[in-house]
Design goal:
Layout (H helix, E strand, L loop, with lengths): L1 E2 L2 E10 L4 H12 L4 E5 L2 E4 L10 E10 L3 H14 L14 E7 L4 E2 L4 E2 L8 H10 L12 H7 L6 E5 L16
Antiparallel strand pairs: 1-2, 2-5, 2-6, 3-5, 4-5, 4-9, 7-8
Helix pairs in contact: 3-4
Length: about 180
């Protein structure tokens, strides 16, 4: 979907080092320089996936619009990660900030740097629960199912629990479990 500000984008943000909730708020603020923010989910706490010997993650999904093309938006997201102290060490490592480009309009693409939509978004509770809050009727351009349908049909997901609104986001509190 396009509007006057460009293509609809969905971004997944997560952190588990430092002050994760404050870092999520700072990341949303920083991203607002390149994305017109239309919605920010509640904060959701989840158990780590992949490398289990680390602290729980705190996650949000941001819905917005941008005129940037996907590679430029990815570069901007990586700039936000770096500004918030992200160091890349190994896959699924603890981090101060992770910004994933989940979807960019109805674009489907695969390059060495970026796959759209995100190849594992439909397998991750820490993405699906907040995604259903901000865009329940968003339709996956490959699987052709809405976010709500993806959540309701997902196999066993990692432990995910709603924490509350992101400070300063103005996001309303949502039900403990999104309908679906």
């Amino acid at each position: 979907m396009r509007d006057d500000a460009g293509n609809e984008v969905l971004l997944g943000l997560g952190a588990n080092e430092g002050e994760p909730v404050a870092q999520l708020a700072a990341a949303v603020q920083a991203l607002s320089a390149v994305v017109r923010i239309g919605g920010v989910s509640s904060v959701w706490r989840s158990e780590p996936v992949g490398f289990a010997e680390q602290a729980d993650f705190y996650n949000v999904v941001v819905r917005g619009w941008t005129g940037l093309e996907p590679p430029a938006l990815l570069a901007a997201a990586q700039g936000v990660e770096a500004a918030l102290g992200r160091r890349r060490s190994f896959a699924n490592a603890p981090r101060t900030m992770d910004v994933d480009l989940l979807a960019y309009g109805e674009r489907v693409m695969r390059t060495a740097e970026l796959t759209l939509p995100h190849p594992r978004l439909h397998l991750r509770g820490f993405v699906l629960y907040p995604l259903v809050e901000v865009a329940p009727e968003w339709t996956h351009p490959v699987l052709l199912r809405t976010a709500r349908e993806l959540l309701s049909s997902a196999d066993a997901l990692e432990r995910v629990e709603r924490v509350g609104a992101l400070p300063g986001s103005g996001a309303p509190l949502a039900p403990a479990r999104p309908p679906g």
